[in-house]
Amino acid sequence: MNCDVAHILMLCRRPSGPGDLTPEDAHLLDQHLAECPECSRILESTLAFDRSAAQVMRNVPVPTAGKQQLLTQITTRQARAFRRTWYFRATMTVLAGVTVLMGYGVIRAARPQFEPDSLAWQKDQERQDPAWAVREWLTQEGFSPDLPADFNLQLCTAFGRFPVQGRSVPGLEFRYLDPQTGREEIAWLYLLADARFQFPNLDPARSSYFTSQILHDDRKQSGIVYVVLYTTPTLQPFLRRFHQPLT
Ligand SMILES: [Zn+2]
Q1: Fold of 116-238
Q2: Residues whose CB is under 5 A from ligand 1 (ion)?
Q3: How far, in Å, is the centroid of ligand 1 from the Cα of 9?
Q4: Percent of residues, the chain, with pLDDT higher than 90
Q5: Whole-model pTM?
């Protein structure tokens, strides 16, 4: 028995209480009181309160029959309210605990097994055939496997989730070392969902290093806006062939 339940049972046992303790409950309560100094202290002060309340009541000129009725009514109502509150709380605590444990169990059971072989194999595949890996990933993520421009996927150094303005969004990263300048040039292609971003301004933007532009606005079809961010003057170095001017 825990202290919460003991408190309820103690309330029932008060001299003026409803007195509806089963012998089993009474026994369990006694056991708890013998072991729990906190609860026996509460019981003692409750009894002391009852004694002084009874004393006060005796000194108030109320007709005897009415007095007893009043006292019984109050304590019964109090006890009911207390029981409801305590049982409710105890039940909710137990339920919350069970839910958390079950959720925790499910989450733990659903954890993927880490397999070094399969990780190495996957990375092999990505290296050998980046075009295949990218298409696989796009399909898995629920996107069209075709990108809106003919990117040179040999330059793709990473794909997955990238932080964009506080959100984690799907994207691809391309890098190459410009042999003339010795500078590493980078391009990111982000697949921004219409549902997650607003696009009040679709104009290209330029900072000292980066140019960003909407590569393809597919909001009508897939709800995706393809945004590129790149360090080169044009996106061309990241494309396999030059198809058409990107506007
Ligand atoms: Zn206790």
Answers
A1: Phosphorylase Kinase; domain 1 (3.30.200)
A2: 3, 6, 36, 39
A3: 11
A4: 37
A5: 0.53
